[in-house]
Amino acid sequence: MQYYQDLKGKRELLPSPSVDTGMGLERLAVIFKM
């Protein structure tokens, strides 16, 4: 994710962009536990 969009539709750059993989925290924990 690179941008924050407010309710009016205005977009602003996030201070630290991140990648949204769509994985839940629980799934990620299971993968690292293996």
Report on this model:
- The protein is an alpha+beta fold and 34 residues long.
- Helices cover 26% and strands 18% of the residues.
- It has 1 helix and 2 strands.
- Strands 1-2 form a two-stranded antiparallel ribbon.
- A hairpin with a 5-residue loop joins strand 1 and strand 2.
- The longest helix has 9 residues.
- What's the story with the biggest beta sheet? 2 strands, antiparallel
| Unreliable residue runs | none
Percent helix among the residues?
25-40%
- Report the total helices: 1
Q: Outline, from the CA principal axes?
A: elongated
Helix and strand arrangement:
Elements: E1 3-5, E2 11-13, H1 25-33
Antiparallel strand pairs: 1-2
Pick out its properties.
34 residues, alpha+beta, two-stranded antiparallel sheet, elongated
Could you provide a short overview of the structure?
By secondary structure, the chain is an alpha+beta fold. It is built from 1 helix and 2 strands; from the N terminus they run E-E-H. Strands 1-2 form a two-stranded antiparallel ribbon.
